[in-house]
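Forum: Protein Structure Q&A
Topic: Joint prediction for protein chains with partners

I've read a bunch of threads here and the consensus seems to be that you should model interacting components together rather than docking separate models afterwards. I'd like to see that in practice. Below is the full input, 608 residues plus whatever partners are listed. Could one of the regulars post the assembled result?
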Amino acid sequence: MCGIVGYTGKREASGILVEGLAKLEYRGYDSAGIAVIDNNKINVSKVKGRLANLEAQLSESPIQGVVGIGHTRWATHGAPSVTNSHPHTNENGTIAVVHNGIIENYLELREWLKEKGYNFVSETDTEVVPHLVDYFYNGNLLEAAMKAVEKLEGSYALGIVNVNEPDKIVAVRKDSPLIVGLKDGENFIASDIPAVLNETRQVYLLEDNQFVVLTASSVDIYSADGQKIEKEVYHVTWNADAAEKGGYDHFMLKEIHEQPKVIKDTMTSRIMLGEEIKLDKITLTKEQIDNIDKVYIVACGTAYHAGIVGKYVIEKLARIPVEVDIASEFRYRDPIINEKTLMIVVSQSGETADTLAALRLGKSKNARVIAVTNVVGSTVSREADDILYTWAGPEIAVASTKAYTTQLIAMYIIALFLAKNKETVSDSQIEEIKEAMIGLPSLVEDALNHKDNIKKFAKEFAKETDMFFLGRGLDYAVAMEGSLKLKEISYIHSEAYAAGELKHGPIALIEDGTVVIALATQEDLFDKMVSNIKEVKTRGAHVAALALEGNQTIEKTVDAVLYLPKVMPLLAPVVSVVPLQLLSYYMSIEKGCDVDKPRNLAKSVTVE
Ligand code: AGP
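Posted by a regular:
Agreed with the consensus. Here's the joint model:
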């Protein structure tokens, strides 16, 4: 996820662009840049690191001009660097482009363009765009942009300038947000409303496949087939703070709602029906995979909980023994590691000290290490042998939500990749799982629609001091994550327990009114789970269950049930965690806690 801006008007563009980018840093901040047209030349200023570095560079070497585009990056393809930062240009520097999204077919487009004599300088997917626009340009930037975009697959919000039409910005969106800011004698484009709020509250909200041509005095919108479109002006009533949260009250709620999109993004160009699983940064060969006799998944907190799901799915599909370890325990228990060991370290930030230490321990004992991380160029990504990036975009809230569900997607992808190479699952079974994965974003969308129900539960449970989360199999793994969410943002003590284990002691804690959240999505364990629920019910527990649509029988056993859309049981964690995230969120609100910045916690624990 990145942020793009554009300005065309009568004032110097660079300061306006940087100001707009500053309001989009929550969308990405590992590098930044602007391109401004001046005297028939495009001047580009780009930096690695935060926007402040760009401001410093511009104060040293300012660039003039009243038309320009800008970008703040969250790297997906190509580590953070000046070369990989946007704007990207064609070879003679007459065209500049900024992009937010993922171009799925960029590799084949690079080859196609190289055959036409184009040369590339960056590792990014984006760089194909200025060369495509160059290839199709014959005096009309809008037409060239339309032809270039026809070649693209994937998601994009693009801002494009060309010295041959120096007063103009052409922009287009598909599956990435883009708005137009309207002001007298000057106009703006941006990924999101916060970037223009200091300038105007009059905006056009562009829809997919709509193009816009901006000059200082005009804004023309076109459909993909070149038809002019009239649009309603939207008057923004939000304040700046709310706008950064996309109108949500907290970043956590916004990020919970981003899950359908980022789950889809993380599968993009990796999970496609009828095609091999493509992992461009995992180079494990079939022989190496056949040589693996043990997998360790090592992580902390929420990432550890994703690893537990990883254990279930890798063992089930690839039939390789998997141990999941909390990093701070793993590194001190002298684990048995050798060249037959595969380590998967999971870390949203890629900087967690214990996880990094575990990675280094594994490397020192010749393990092969795959890093699953959300930050391109993070320390774990630089020290691992292989990388599977989650494409969740920046996660601002301390409590992990979209990072967790995209880590689950990464676990499924790795499990399928290993199973395919070990031939432990048939091609048809793999296709069936891939098809079900592709359906996950809409199922998560459905799960998000239970908000009102969950708010009621939250009001009812907010006064509790202790809660249990019970589950079996994959439901137990999700129960752990649900319990952690509740603890860390509502400060209510809770614990997750394997439902079949409760009677070996902890059931002594159940008394009249004890609140139990019971997960019952695993159909092969459903009856067992119902009997475990009866055990706690007879001891006075108040039970709210999560079950899949169609399992009405559970209603006779519990006090309340929230039905989730039918999902392949193996993939259920991606959907069943959503109501638990929402429950914790609304309980935290009920208790007046600081949802995005809970007490005592840091977003990335870079100390032991
Ligand atoms: C989860 O909500 C917490 N923020 C925390 O447990 C987190 O998952 C843990 O610190 C690991 O962080 P990482 O994924 O960046 O390594």
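The mean pLDDT is 95.
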